[in-house]
Structures are given as C-alpha cells and as structure tokens.
C-alpha cells in the first residue's frame, strides 16, 4: 500500500520545506521535491498544511493508581485522544508499589496496555522501593526496552525515595546507561506545610499551591543534579514548573552535565489563579508540582527557546471533577493529583509559534524529535525520513477551534483549557502508515498500537 502526501510544507527540527512524502506500508519510503511522485494507492492533499512527524508525549499516566482511585483514561481512550491531537507515541509509566518487583510491575503494565492502544507506546518505570532486587531488575528493564526510571523526592510514604536510595539507583543507571527521571519537590518539607495548613483550617484547593512553594522545587532540582553529578547518571527533570528549578538546570547544563528537563503546557498557560477558582473548581487544577504564579511562564518559554527545557510532555493524569476530585473537598491533600491534556499538547504549543515564543522547528523538536532522541526512539520516531515509521500529522495552521470538554475525546468530565481559542488544528494523522484520524473521523482503534522497546538515551553530550 502506497500513500502519497502531496503539496504540503514538511516540518522537521531543523526547518521547513515544500515536499511530498511517499509512504509504503508502515514506513516513510521517500521525501522528494513537489511533483516527483505522481500518484499512489491513496493521495492525501496537504496543500496549505504542515506535514510533521507525529507527536511523542513522553509523560502520560493511563489507568494510574493514585490515592485510592485511578486516572480515568484507559490505554484505549487515552491513546485515541492522543491521536486526535496529533500525538502518535506515548511513553507511559509503570508504577512499582512498595513490596513488588520491577519485573512483576512491568508484566502488569504490559497486561494493561498490550492490545489496547491505538498508537505506539513505551514505558518508563517508576521506582518506589529501592533494594537489591530492584537494582538488579533495573538491568532486566533496560534489556526489555524500558531504559528510564522515574524517582520521587515528593510523596513521603508513597513514592518517595531518600537521597541515599536515589544515589544507589543513579549508580545503577550509570552502570546500565539508563536515565533517571526526577519528580523534584522537597516532599518532607511540603508535608509539614500541608499539615500546618490543615491544622489551621486552610483546606481549599489553592492551599495545594501555597504549600508547595517554587523554592522547594528549585532546592530538590539542585539536589538531584548534585546526586547525578556525584554518580555520573544522566538526569531528566520531569514536569518542571518553576523558575528556580530552571535556573538549577541551566547552571548544570552550562557546566556540561547531562541534565535535561521537560515542562508541560499547563505550566506555560495556567497559573495558581486557576487553583484559586471558587466553589472547589480549583480542584480541577491540582497537580504536582502545582500551577505557579504567572511570572514563571516567561522563564519557561525562554527555557524552551534556549533548550534548557528540551521537551514538552503533558503529564496527562486525568481524574474526573465529579466523584474523584471531590475526594478532597474539605482536605486539599486528598484531591487526586493530576490534570488531563494528552489531546491538546500539539495545539497548545502551536500557540507558542503563533505568538512568536518559539519557531516552527522548535515546536517539532520539543514535541517530537527530542523526545524520540531523549528516550531511544530515533530515527524510528521523531522525524519524517526514509525508513522512519510513517507517523505523520497533517496540520492546518489556519483552522480555528475552541477547546472544550464538550468536544474533546479524553475520558474526563472537564477541560483544563475550557474555552481556549486555538489557531491551528490537526487534520489527518497516520500511525505507522495507517490513517487513524481524518476529516471524516476516527479510523484507528484499539490494538493498532505496538509496544516500543526503547534504546538508551541518544541525547547525551
Ligand atoms: N503530576 C501529578 O500531579 N500527577 C501525576 C504523577 C506525577 O507525575 O507526579
Ligand atoms: Zn511527578
Ligand atoms: Zn507524571
């Protein structure tokens, strides 16, 4: 089966050019000057549109257990929603709970995802019980294509690891060539602030933000960087939200340390003012790290331009407002942490292009090419080039849309971006050559997506 994408502007991490793309079965066969290929079994007209590599969302949580409940997107609903938004690969997190092994955890996550995804997917591993077996199992995970391990300096008693445990896991990461991903917030100090707030009757959602000050993200980020320096491990800071944390990353990178960071659209567009919405509506915006004061946003955009922030992921972790966020009415510390967003990342970052914050090439780089390189998927993913998987988005940069829970495809009863006016819209999406989204609707489905065994990080200096 040959598909020709004709007349579009092909985007990459290095620029844009008028070109046609020939797809043969699941792969890109050729990229050539307009008109070189005359026809194919199927021809998609991309005149006036961008043709870009499918997005890679390197941070999602489908069906994630948290605080006695689960994030509500399944691997099926979440990957379908991702496809609607131009994302053709997710990397989700398998979650080790205390007392279980990494290998059993990985088996469990394969059971949840295999045969259920609409687009390709990989796994990172959350390490929450550092012991000799866990450290040994990290080797098995790397061999099985899970080459990155998330650890937490937050959530004492749940996912939290001590500095000593982090150090040991980092040493194993250095030995295996794998990457440590860090949730960098000082959870011990935060838990004190949370207890004090509750004791003095401050119970509403905004307290979630007020008890997790940005300086404690900066401190934890700097500490993680120090531990990575001692051990030589590559370090990737997840969901970076604060100027103080970004400064720590920038300083380490200036020294040449293999330290990288991602941010998420919510930190670029939303703020603590959303957490302060009345009538418990702020609960919709509870995630950790919390939404910050607006002053941080300009720093984050600058970080994206300078590559101190290399990747934009969503940290998609949806909990319904009714029933789930409700668990924390009267006690903000019980509000399930996480926000929906997997469907909107490409559109929201395109607004950064429209506003002149980032270039088109940078949009593609941060949302597709760099995550592919960072997590060992390049050049299979993250680029439109001969031999690459035909994960391709045809994007109409002039279309207009309004984001809303009424129209989104995520399995959650609210939109964090309700009413946002967007310039640009995904028109067609190919996943390994198959048209999964088109103007006539959803053509993909559960089971098309395949597990991606990933190589080591390809982004080290
Ligand atoms: N971010 C968040 O609040 N929930 C998902 C889990 C995590 O990434 O820490
Ligand atoms: Zn986290
Ligand atoms: Zn997360």
UniProtKB/TrEMBL annotation:
What GO molecular function annotation could you give as one example from this UniProt entry?
Answer: hydrolase activity, acting on carbon-nitrogen (but not peptide) bonds, in cyclic amides
Q: Does the keyword Metal-binding apply?
A: yes
Question: So which cofactors does this thing need?
Answer: Zn(2+)
Arranged from A to Z, the UniProt key words for this protein are:
Hydrolase, Metal-binding
Annotated ranges, domain Amidohydrolase-related: 50-436
Superkingdom field = Bacteria
Instruction: Tell me what PTMs the record reports for this protein.
Output: Carbamylation allows a single lysine to coordinate two divalent metal cations.
Instruction: Report the residues modified as N6-carboxylysine.
Output: 150
Q: Could you tell me which SUPFAM superfamilies the record lists for this protein?
A: Composite domain of metallo-dependent hydrolases, Metallo-dependent hydrolases
Q: Which GO terms describe its cellular component?
A: cytosol
Of which family is this protein a member?
Belongs to the metallo-dependent hydrolases superfamily. Hydantoinase/dihydropyrimidinase family.
Protein name listed in UniProt: Dihydropyrimidinase
Q: What organism does the record attribute this protein to?
A: Amycolatopsis taiwanensis
């Amino acid at each position: 089966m040959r598909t020709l994408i004709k007349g579009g502007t092909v985007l990459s991490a290095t620029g844009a050019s008028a070109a046609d793309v020939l797809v043969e079965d699941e792969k890109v066969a050729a990229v050539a000057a307009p008109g070189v290929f005359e026809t194919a079994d199927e021809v998609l007209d991309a005149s006036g549109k961008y043709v870009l590599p499918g997005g890679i969302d390197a941070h999602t949580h489908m069906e994630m257990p948290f605080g006695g409940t689960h994030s509500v997107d399944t691997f099926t609903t979440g990957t379908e929603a991702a496809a609607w938004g131009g994302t053709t690969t997710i990397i989700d997190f398998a979650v080790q709970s205390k007392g279980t092994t990494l290998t059993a955890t990985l088996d469990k996550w394969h059971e949840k995802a295999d045969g259920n995804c609409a687009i390709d997917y990989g796994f990172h591993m959350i390490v929450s019980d550092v012991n000799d077996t866990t450290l040994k199992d990290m080797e098995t995970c790397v061999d099985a294509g899970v080459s990155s391990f998330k650890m937490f300096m937050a959530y004492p008693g749940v996912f939290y690891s001590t500095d000593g445990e982090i150090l040991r896991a980092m040493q194993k990461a250095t030995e295996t060539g794998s990457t440590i991903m860090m949730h960098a917030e000082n959870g011990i100090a935060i838990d004190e602030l949370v207890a004090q707030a509750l004791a003095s009757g401050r119970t509403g959602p905004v307290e979630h933000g007020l008890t997790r000050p940005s300086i404690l993200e900066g401190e934890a980020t700097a500490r993680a960087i120090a531990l990575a320096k001692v051990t030589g491990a590559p370090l990737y800071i997840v969901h970076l939200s604060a100027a103080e944390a970004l400064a720590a990353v920038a300083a380490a990178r200036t020294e040449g340390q293999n330290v990288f960071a991602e941010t998420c659209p919510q930190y670029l567009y939303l703020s603590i003012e959303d957490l302060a919405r009345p009538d418990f509506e702020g609960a919709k915006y509870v995630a950790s790290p919390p939404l910050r004061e607006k002053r941080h946003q300009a720093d984050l955009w600058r970080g994206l331009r300078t590559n101190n922030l290399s990747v934009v992921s969503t940290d998609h972790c949806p909990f319904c407002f009714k029933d789930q966020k409700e668990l924390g009415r009267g006690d903000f510390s019980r509000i399930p942490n996480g926000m929906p967003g997997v469907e909107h990342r490409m559109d929201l970052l395109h607004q950064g292009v429209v506003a002149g914050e980032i270039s088109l090439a940078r949009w593609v780089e941060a949302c597709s090419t760099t995550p592919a390189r960072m997590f060992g998927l390049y050049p299979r993913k993250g680029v439109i080039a001969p031999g690459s998987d035909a994960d391709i988005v045809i994007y109409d940069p002039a279309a207009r849309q309004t984001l809303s829970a009424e129209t989104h495809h995520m399995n959650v009863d609210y939109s964090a971006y309700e009413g946002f006016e967007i310039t640009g819209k995904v028109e067609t999406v190919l996943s390994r050559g198959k048209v999964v989204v088109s103007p006539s609707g959803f053509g993909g489905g559960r089971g098309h997506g395949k597990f991606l065994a990933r190589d080591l990080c390809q982004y080290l200096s």
